[in-house]
Amino acid sequence: MRGIYQAVSGATHSAVREIGTWTFWKNMLIMTAGMLITAVATDYFLLPGNIILGSLAGVSMIVSNLFGYIGITLKVSTLILLFNAILLILAAILINKDFALKNAYTALIYGPLIDLCELVKPVSELILPGQTTVMNDVWLDLCCYVLLISAAQAILFRINASTGGMDIVAKILNCRHNTEIGTALIVSGAIICIAGILVNSFQMVMIGLLGTWINGVVVDYFTASLNRRKRVCIISDRYEELRKYILFTLDRGCSIGRLTGGFSGDEKVEIQTLLTKDEFGHLMEYIKKNDIQAFITASNVSEIYGLWKEHKKRHSK
C-alpha cells in the first residue's frame, strides 16, 4: 500500500508543477475531446445494440446483465468507474506515474460523459420508430463504434494517455512485453468477448470478436498514421546549403555520407534526415524556391526510437 501511495503522490506533485504550462492544458483538451468521442461511441452505438466488445464497457455490460438476472440494477457507467479505479492502481505500479495520472482523469470523466450524452441527446431520440438501434443494423453500429473508439484511442496513446479500461491492460503488455498496442487490445479483448457468451447469443459473441479484431487493426493504423515521419535522402552538389537549412531552420539532425555514382563514377554526397510531414513540405518548398538541383527519395517511417525531438524551438532564417 505504501508503494501505491508513493506512486500516486509523486504523480500528483508532478502534475501540480505542470498546471501552469501550455502542454498541460493542451493535453487536458485532447483527453477531454478523446473521451467525449469515446462516450458518444459507447452510448449511441455500443450500448443500444448490446454489442460486447473487448473493452471495459463490454465487461461492465456483462456484469450489469448478470446482476440484472438476480434483480440488482447496476448502471454500466458506474461499473466503468469502479473497474477503472482498480486498473489505475495497476497502471501507477506497472507503467508510470504520468500515464496513471492522465488515466485517472479520463477514467473519472468517462462514465459522467456517457450520462451527459443521455442528458443532451438521449439515444431514444435517435432511434427511429420500428428500429432497435441508431443504425438499425448491428454491423453498421459496430463499424461506427470501432471507427470512433479507434480514433480516440490512437489520439490518447499519442500523448501517453488512454480511454482507460482495457487500454490500460494493452499498455501494460506494450510496456512490459513490447507487444504492439493493437495486438494487445485484440488478445485482452478476445477474452472478454468469449465471456460475453454468459449474457449474449453465439452470433453476438462472434460479432464482438470480429469487432475487437477490427478495433486492434484500426488502432494500429491510426497510431502509425499519427506517428508517421519522412525519411528523406538527398543527393545534391549544394549539400552544404541544405545541411544548414535542415540543422538551423528545421532544427533537425542529419547524416552525411559519400557515394560513388554507379554509372558516372562521380563522387557525390548524400544527406539523410527524418522530418515531419510539414517539415518535409518546407524542405521541398525551399529546394524549389532556390532552384537547387537534387535527387530526392522519401519514405514513410512509423516507429522512431532514440533521439527525436517532438517539441522544438524553430530557429529564424
Walk me through the structure.
The protein is an alpha+beta fold and 317 residues long. It has two domains: 225 residues, no CATH class; 73 residues, Alpha-Beta Plaits. It is 63% helix and 9% strand. It is built from twelve helices and four strands. A four-stranded antiparallel sheet has the order 2-3-1-4. Helix 4 packs antiparallel against helix 5, helix 7 packs parallel to helix 10 and helix 9 runs antiparallel to helix 10. The protein is elongated and about 85 Å long. The N and C termini lie far apart (55 Å). The C terminus is likely disordered.
* Strand neighbour order, sheet with most strands: 2-3-1-4
Q: Could you estimate the helical fraction of the residues in percent?
A: 55-70%
Mean pLDDT: 82
H-E string: HHHHHHHHHHEHEEHE
* Euclidean distance between termini CA atoms: 55 Å
User: What profile does the largest beta sheet have?
Assistant: 4 strands, antiparallel
Shape descriptor: elongated
- DSSP E strands, number: 4
Number of helices: 12
Radius of gyration from the alpha-carbon trace, in angstroms: 24 Å
Number of domains: 2
Report the uncertain regions: 313-317
**Helix-and-strand structural type:** alpha+beta
Strand content: 5-15%
